C-alpha cells in the first residue's frame, strides 16, 4: 500500500499492522468485531450473570486473581492508575506516614500526572536515582522517613529491569526493618517468574499489597486488580467507589481478563525464553551502528529496549513502509529521550514473534536499515 499523506497516522499504522503477515513485536491489532468475538473465546460460562457493580463475572475474576497471587482478597479496578492511588492512600492512612519511597522512573512519577500528590496529598522520596531498583543499603540508609516502599517489577522505563531474587528479598527486608510497608507495582508481575525462578505467590507474598494489570501482558481490554489482606482490600473497595471506579457493569473487561489469564499466562515462559533469542539477533544486526544497542542484554522479561541512532519520526516512517511494502512489521512506536538523533522502541515478544528465527530477525532489520538510507 502506497503512503497516503492525507491518511490519519493512527489509521495508517492500524492498517499496516493489520495487513502484515508477520509481526516481531507485539500482536496484530484487532478490529472492533474481532474484539467482541474474542470475549466469547474463553471457558467462562456465558450463560451466567454479567455483573452489577462488581458481582457476577467480576467477582469470579477477583477470586481468580487472589488465588493466582496467593492473596487473601483482590478487588477489580477500571484502571491501574486508580488502583495505585488507592493502594498508596490506604497505606498512608494505616501507617500514619504520607511519604512514599519510589523510583523517579516509577509509573506514578512518569505516567500518572502526580495523582498521588494532587489527589491524596502524598509525597515521594527516591532512595536511588540509578536506572535500577533501589538496593537494600539505599533503603536502609535513606535519610528521610517513609511509610511505604513502592517497587515496580519490572521497572519499565529503565528497560523492564528486575533485580535478582536475593536483591529483592534484601530490599524488602530493609524496608521492613524501617517499619515500612511494601507495595508492588506488579502491572507486569506475570512475566517476572522466569527471571526470579519463583512462583507468583512467592513473588507477591514478599509485599503487603500488589497491583496487577490485565491488558499490559495478558491482552485484556482494560482493567486492573489490587490484591492483599482482606481488611486492606475491603478499605480499597470503599476508596474505589469514592474515586468513581464503582462502574455499573464491567463484564467485557472481566471476560477479556479471564481469557488472557487462560491463554497468555501459560505462555509467558516461552515468550521470555524467545525474547533472549530475538534480543541476541537484534544486537548482532545493529552491531555496526554507532550508539545502537539492545538493553538489557539478555532481557529480564519478554520485553526490552532497542536503541538506534535515528530520529523517532524517521524510524517510524521506515517501519511503516517496510510493513506496507513487505508485509513484515518489526517494531511499534519510537521515542526520543531528549538526545538529538537517538531513539528507542520497546520490543515485546509474544506469540507472533515465536515464528521468527535469528536469521529472519537479522534480515528484517537489514531491510529496515535499507529504508533509512
Please specify the SSE layout and strand pairing.
Blueprint: H1 9-18, E1 22-23, H2 32-38, H3 57-69, E2 73-77, H4 80-95, E3 99-101, H5 107-110, H6 115-120, E4 123-125, H7 136-141, E5 148-152, H8 165-177, E6 181-185, H9 193-196, H10 200-205, E7 209-213, E8 224-228, H11 230-242, H12 251-263, H13 268-285, E9 293-295, E10 303-308, H14 312-326, E11 328-329, E12 334-335, E13 343-348, H15 358-370
Helix pairs in contact: 1-14, 3-12, 4-11, 13-15
Please provide a written account of the structure.
The protein has 373 residues and is of the alpha/beta class. It contains 15 helices and 13 strands. The strands form three sheets. A seven-stranded mixed β-sheet has the order 2-8-7-6-5-3-4, sandwiched between helices. Strand 9 and strand 10 form a beta hairpin. The longest helix is centred in the last third of the chain and has 18 residues, at 268-285. It is globular, with a radius of gyration of 21 Å. The relative contact order is 0.15.
Query: In what range is the share of β-strand residues?
Result: 5-15%
- Radius of gyration in whole Å, from Cα? 21 Å
Shape: globular
Structural category is alpha/beta
Q: Work out the oligomeric state of the chains in this entry.
A: single chain
Distance between the termini: 20 Å
Largest sheet: 7 strands, mixed
Q: H/E order of the elements? A: HEHHEHEHHEHEHEHHEEHHHEEHEEEH
Q: Count the strands? A: 13
* Order of neighbouring strands in the sheet with most strands: 2-8-7-6-5-3-4
What would the average pLDDT be, to the nearest integer?
95
Q: What count of helical segments does DSSP give?
A: 15
Amino acid at each position: 500500500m502506497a503512503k497516503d499523506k492525507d491518511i490519519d497516522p493512527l489509521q495508517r499504522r492500524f492498517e499496516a499492522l493489520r495487513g502484515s503477515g508477520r509481526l516481531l513485536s507485539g500482536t496484530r491489532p484487532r478490529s472492533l468485531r474481532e474484539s467482541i468475538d474474542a470475549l466469547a473465546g474463553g471457558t467462562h460460562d456465558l450463560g451466567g450473570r454479567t455483573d452489577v457493580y462488581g458481582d457476577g463475572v467480576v467477582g469470579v475474576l477477583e477470586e481468580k486473581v487472589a488465588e493466582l497471587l496467593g492473596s487473601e482478597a483482590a478487588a477489580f479496578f477500571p484502571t491501574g492508575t486508580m488502583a495505585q492511588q488507592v493502594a498508596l492512600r490506604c497505606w498512608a492512612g494505616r501507617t500514619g506516614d504520607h511519604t512514599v519511597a519510589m523510583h523517579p522512573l516509577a509509573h506514578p512519577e512518569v505516567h500518572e500526572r502526580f495523582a498521588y500528590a494532587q489527589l491524596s496529598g502524598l509525597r515521594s522520596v527516591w532512595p536511588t536515582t540509578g536506572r535500577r531498583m533501589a538496593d537494600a543499603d539505599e533503603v536502609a540508609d535513606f535519610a528521610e522517613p517513609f511509610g511505604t516502599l513502592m517497587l515496580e517489577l519490572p521497572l519499565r522505563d529503565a528497560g523492564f529491569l528486575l533485580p535478582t531474587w536475593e536483591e529483592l528479598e534484601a530490599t524488602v527486608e530493609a524496608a521492613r526493618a524501617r517499619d515500612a510497608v511494601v507495595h508492588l507495582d506488579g502491572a507486569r508481575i506475570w512475566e517476572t517468574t522466569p527471571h526470579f525462578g519463583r512462583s507468583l505467590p512467592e513473588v507477591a507474598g514478599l509485599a503487603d499489597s500488589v497491583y496487577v494489570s490485565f491488558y499490559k501482558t495478558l491482552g485484556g481490554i482494560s482493567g486492573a486488580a489490587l490484591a492483599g489482606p482482606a481488611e486492606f482490600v475491603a478499605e480499597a473497595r470503599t476508596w474505589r467507589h469514592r474515586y468513581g471506579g464503582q462502574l455499573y457493569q464491567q463484564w467485557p473487561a472481566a471476560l477479556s481478563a479471564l481469557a488472557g489469564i487462560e491463554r497468555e499466562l501459560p505462555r509467558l515462559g516461552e515468550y521470555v525464553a524467545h525474547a533472549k533469542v530475538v534480543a541476541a539477533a537484534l544486537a548482532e544486526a545493529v552491531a555496526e551502528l554507532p550508539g545502537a544497542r539492545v538493553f538489557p542484554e539478555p532481557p529480564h522479561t519478554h520485553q526490552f529496549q532497542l536503541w538506534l541512532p535515528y530520529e523517532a519520526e524517521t524510524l517510524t516512517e521506515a517501519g511503516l513502509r517496510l510493513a506496507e511494502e513487505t508485509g513484515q512489521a518489526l517494531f511499534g512506536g519510537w521515542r526520543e529521550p531528549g538526545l538529538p538523533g537517538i531513539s528507542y522502541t520497546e520490543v515485546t515478544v509474544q506469540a507472533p514473534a515465536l515464528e521468527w528465527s535469528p536469521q529472519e530477525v537479522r534480515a528484517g532489520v537489514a531491510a529496515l536499515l535499507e529504508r533509512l538510507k
